[in-house]
Amino acid sequence: MNYPETVKVVEVGPRDGLQNEKIALDTEAKLNLISQLADAGLKTIESGSFVSPKWVPQMAGSEEVFEAINSRLQPIYPNTIFSALTPNDFGMARAIECGVKEVAVFAAASESFSQKNINCSIKESLERFVPVMKKAYSSKIPVRGYVSCVLGCPYEGSIDPRQVAIVTQELLDMGCYEVSLGDTIGIGTPASTSTLLTSLLSSIPASKLAMHMHDTYGQALANILISLQMGISVFDSAVAGLGGCPYAKGASGNVATEDLIYMLDGLAIQHGVEMQKLLQASTAISLKLNRNNGSKVSCAYSSA
Description:
304 residues, alpha/beta, TIM Barrel, globular
């Protein structure tokens, strides 16, 4: 079996993870987590979101987080990308003011989920990104895209891979350098993951795709393994398996970064992350949030 020699791990715990935890952390606690992750060797860390605190209170203070990143962390980790989610023109303007070096936009493959999540259709959501992309282009800021519910929707059930391909291609055509495919409710299996990627890879290069797996049904690593076998080499994960989805009942957290790294180690795939430092970050954030650690690897190490 052919696997990529190296894999890029995109750490989404400080954004996608924390925004779905019950406890909202202050700026210093967020910075401590981000700093520990950078020290562990993670080179791309989604560190905040420029959304209204009214809708996502856990992401309040992202301006302060990025100001501190630029003054305190970026000089120490010059090769690390600290990115932010920017859902609209206003959020993009705020990100530019804060000196963010990379941003992300998100759409859905499900009309119902799009309406529940951001109160607009898929078409309308993509139209909102036009001014975001213009600002990003003029400021020379790379943009990453997300597509939610690629393997199933809590409201519509199964999603046609052709619909995923349409939304993914539109994001790429708009200027996203890469699109991350999200199994938002963690319903995917190796079979459905293979079917999805077979469809997309017929028209989209593997180098333009990433996978964002949730572990609701314990299938995340199995789905990632299939993705690796099909040539995907970028994966999103969250330390300690943080997160969930407020608009998808029953959805558990992202695949844990520790569990992903353990599997990559077993496959002799390079990733640049130090497991022991990652485990320390995992333990610290779990204690801070007063939650059980969602990583099986972290739990196994702690009980050994």
